[in-house]
Amino acid sequence: MWIDTHCHLDAAEFDADRDAVVARAKAAGVRQIVIPAVDAHNLERVRELAHEHDLTYALGIHPLCVMGAKPGDLDRVGEALAQHKDDERLVAVGEIGLDYFVEGIDEDTQLRFYVEQLKLAKHAGLPVLLHVRRSADKLLAGLRRVGFSHGGIAHAFNGSEQQAQAFIDLGFKLGFGGTLTFERSLQIRRIAASVPDDVPVMETDAPDIPPQWLYKTAEQREAEPGQARNEPAELPRIAESLAALRGWTVEQAAEITSANARAALPRLPR
Question: Would you say which domain of life the source belongs to (predicted)?
Fold first, then answer.
């Protein structure tokens, strides 16, 4: 069994065939998917989808959405976490974090939302799904500042080997997905090959981060809208790259990464 620890199943790209997307995933052996929220407006939607499709979800505000957040949105996250605290399908707070790649997003605002949501996760006793994009050191500093000890997953990890070890030391697993399938992703592939067995988890970030066989150039995407969409059914094939890098069989990759996902997100069904 495979676990996709990060898939935006609520995204508009799936509106036309969402049921079929879930069916293809389950037919491919992806029996569990974590659906993270990205803003206060889709908190209820990800919960509904998780219950509708026998999946799991996380609640939080994405760093790329903080500039559009309204006063009280952090309170809405806290209220939703309190309201659904006994919902076994609620497995984490996320997607939260910092993004210093995209321009035009105030760093102080991002940091405030990140730290406040870490506090919410600490209070709820839940792990976090962290957005890491040119921000690993400040994410780590925030974890230490809050005294956060519930771990989670550094989603789509793309930092250095030293930063990877720092997250591991704080009890985090590292998420790997479509980027692994590109031979030029030397740093990510090197980290995926070298971390301890109990660290890697699999994810798609669908509909984003398509693997090599789905990738289109910007020109191709403009000419063929929607043709580069990623989906969770691609996970087993993506995982073949991780297995090859680590000398695992595909069956070992499924067993090990699923066990790691459950260790990171203890509420995941077994």
Answer: Bacteria
Residue appearing with tokens 């969402």: 18
Task: Return the closest-CA partner of residue 124 out of 177, 160, 82.
Answer: 82
Distance CA 136, CA 82 (A): 29
Structure tokens at 214: 């789905």
Question: Of all residues in the chain, what percent carry a pLDDT higher than 90?
Answer: 94
Write out pLDDT tens, residues 34-74: 999 999 999 999 999 999 999 999 999 999 999 999 999 99
Question: What is the 3-state secondary structure of 220-270?
Answer: HHHHCCCCCCCCHHHHHHHHHHHHHHHCCCHHHHHHHHHHHHHHHCCCCCC
* 231/227 Cα distance (integer angstroms): 12
- Which residues sit opposite 174 in a β-bridge? 154, 200
Task: Say if residue 76's pLDDT is above 70.
Answer: yes
In sequence order, what DSSP letters do the residues of 136-162 get, joined into one string?
A: HHHHHHHHHHHT--S-EEEET--S-HH
Contacts of 157 (CB under 8 A, 6+ apart): 132, 164, 167, 174, 175, 176, 188, 191
Q: The CATH number of 2-264 is which of 3.20.20.140, 3.40.50.1100, 1.10.3720.10, 3.40.980.10?
A: 3.20.20.140
Could you say which DSSP state residue 206 is in?
A: B
- Two structure tokens written together for 260: 């790691």
**Rounded Cα–Cα distance for residues 8 and 80 (Å):** 19
Report how far residue 172's alpha carbon sits from residue 183's, in angstroms, rounded to the nearest whole number: 26
